[in-house]
Amino acid sequence: MFIETEATPNPATLKFNLGRMVGGDRTHQFSDPSAAVGSPLARRLFAIDQITAVFFGPDFITATKTDAVDWPTVKPAVLGAIMEHYIADDPLFDVETAETGHSAAGEDSDLVNQIKELLDTRVRPAVAQDGGDIVFRSFQDGVVYLHLQGSCAGCPSSTATLKAGIENMLRHYLPEVTEVRAV
User: In terms of CATH architecture, what is 110-182?
Assistant: First the structure.
C-alpha cells in the first residue's frame, strides 16, 4: 500500500492520500479520543500521543498534531497506524457511531436546497483538496451556518475562506444570503 502525504493550509494537520476509498460519500470527524470509540482506525491514530484530531474524507485521512512536535517526528507513527489497520483488514467502524458530514434528511426550503447544492458542487470539492470538509448546519435570517471539519477546523485561513470565498459566492448566486458564519 502506497500512502502519499500532503501538507494542508493548516500547519498542524497533514493529509494522507490512500489511493482507495476511506469514508466513501460520507465524512467522519473525530475531535478527541472519546469520539473514536466506534472506529478501530481512529482509535489506532489517537493511540499516538501527539494526535489531537482525526478526519476521514472520501479517499483520504487527515490527522492533527499538537504544537509540541513537528511532523517529521510523528508522521512515521501515523503512517504505521494506517498501514497496520489496512494490512489487518479491519473495518473502518465497529458500529456506525461516527459523526457524518451530511445533515439529516428532511424537508428543506428551495433556498436551503440551493445553498446545499452550491456547497456540494462548488465548495466541498475544493475544501476536500485541502483535507477538510464544510458541512451545512442551518440558514436563519440571511445567515448560513457552516461547520468546518478536518484540516479546516482551526486553520489560520479558514476565516478568509468563509468570508472571501464562500460568503461572496453564495451572496452572488443567492441575494437572500447576507453572511456566512462558522459554528
Answer: 2-Layer Sandwich (3.30)
Per-residue pLDDT, averaged over 92-106, amounts to 55
Distance CA 25, CA 153 (A): 20
Euclidean distance between CA atoms 28 and 91, whole angstroms: 14
Q: Say whether pLDDT at 52 is over 80.
A: yes
Q: Has residue 99 got a pLDDT over 70?
A: no
d(CA 75, CA 16): 10
Q: What are phi and psi of 122, to 5 degrees?
A: -110, -25
Say if residues 64 and 10 touch (Cβ distance below 8 Å).
yes
What pLDDT sits at residue 95?
A: 62
Q: Same CATH fold, 110-182 and 4-87?
A: no
pTM: 0.76
For residue 10, what is the DSSP state? S
Which CATH code is given to the segment(s) 4-87?
Answer: 3.30.1370.70
Residue 60, CB half-sphere, CA atoms under 13 Å: how many?
A: 22
Beta strands at 51-56 and 143-150: parallel, antiparallel or unpaired: unpaired
Q: Which residues pair with 56 in a beta bridge?
A: 28, 61
Amino acid at 126: A
Domain boundaries, the chain: 4-87, 110-182
* C-alpha distance across the termini of the chain, in Å: 37
For cell 501515523, name the residue. 78
Q: Which three cell numbers stand for residue 10?
A: 493548516
